[in-house]
Amino acid sequence: MTFDHHPLSEFVIEEQEDKRIEQATIYKDNLPDNSSVLPFVDSSRSVVSAIPEKRDYQKLTWFKKHIARFIIVQINPFAMSAESRKEDPYPVWDMSNYAAWFSYLSGNQGEIFNLTLKLQEIIKGFDFFKNERSGTAKILSLSFPHLGKEPYKLTEISDGQKALIALYTLIYCAPDEDYTLCIDEPENFLALPEIQPWLNALFDQYSEERSHGQAIIISHHPALINYLASSSGHWFERTDEGLIRLQRITHEQDGGLSLAKLIELGWIYDE
């Protein structure tokens, strides 16, 4: 890794006498000739994770903290548990720790209140969340008073409802500082009329002047691609040489790859 052509970190693997030697080196800010070799390198993890937070490594520390502000998820409603035994400050990849994340978010009642109001509009009959202690754990449930039943545990509602709850929580309870939200196929488990309002809310969130965040959405759904492509779309194409070519998607053929061309190729449907 380099900054302004100066090395910050380096990881190399060498073969010596049938031995595999792994070595990580970090460099002090503005002192490329002054380096330190990190012991006990774990090649399954990035060198960045092992960087000590010291004054001499401010650039590496900044990068490490910035990477920590990436929220990367692919929502799996089947994995979402209603039980939590601790508070998690961030969701995990599949959102299986949603209940533990909700327990952490409950410390900010303003955010939970706004989320609840929005979900009352989106999910028919939903009234409020309950996150009550049961022994050493907390059980997250949702109240639907018109059904005349005790609150439903998170695991008792539909997969689509769980997906909606997770998606709107990612918007309404996002961190205040600048962060990057990466969502893989948010439309899974949802119909287009359900995902479109969420996309509108997502754009509203990131178009606000006070927002320093950004969102990256991965989707194969033609309707979503059409919705996003006119202003935000990029096309990734693998060449025969194995390289990845990136082109901007535009309405017109102005140096980018036009929507019309993609429709002609059959990659996007003209609805």
In total, the number of strands is 15
**Radius of gyration based on Cα positions:** 23 Å
Secondary-structure content class: alpha+beta
Predict the CATH topology of the largest domain. Rossmann fold
- Percent of residues in beta strands: 25-35%
Domain count: 2
Mean pLDDT: 83
CATH architecture of the largest domain: 3-Layer(aba) Sandwich
Contiguous helical run count = 7
Give the helix level as a range of percent. 25-40%
List keywords for this structure.
alpha+beta; 271 residues; Rossmann fold; 28% strand; three-stranded antiparallel β-sheet; globular; four-stranded antiparallel β-sheet
Please explain how this structure is put together.
Strands 7, 8, 9 and 10 form a four-stranded antiparallel beta sheet that branches. Strands 3-4-5 form a three-stranded antiparallel beta sheet, with no helix packed on it. Helix 3 packs across helix 4 (159-172) and helix 4 packs parallel to helix 5 (192-207). It has two domains: 2-55, no CATH class; 70-219, Rossmann fold (3-Layer(aba) Sandwich). The protein has helices at 58-67, 98-105, 109-122, 159-172, 192-207, 222-232, 259-265; strands spanning 2-3, 6-7, 9-16, 19-28, 31-38, 70-73, 83-84, 128-134, 137-143, 152-153, 180-184, 214-218, 234-238, 244-250, 257-258. It is globular. The chain is built from seven helices and 15 strands. The chain starts with a strand and ends in a 6-residue tail after the last helix. Strand 8 and strand 9 form a beta hairpin. With 271 residues, the chain is of the alpha+beta class.
